[in-house]
Design a protein that fits this description.
elongated, 2 helices, zinc ion binding, membrane, alpha+beta, LITAF, metal-binding, transmembrane helix, binds zinc ion
Length: 80
Amino acid sequence: MATQPIALGPDPASLTCPHCHARVTTTMKAAANTKTHIIALILCVCLCIPCVCIPYCCDSCQTLQHYCPNCQAYLGSYAN
Ligand SMILES: [Zn+2]
């Protein structure tokens, strides 16, 4: 059986982990993506250097990554 891509949203999802086959609720981590870097660059050019940290602290500017809390496997991501 092929592993199907998992449709994941901005909230923790309840699913069966394809790696350890446990029924889990995903844990989420925010990761910087291209949009984060672009916003940081714009802030750097237009405003001031300390502002570039803003997009890295703002979840809406980052990709949310879902992980299995049981086996720590990466399950998928949700890009805003
Ligand atoms: Zn797992």
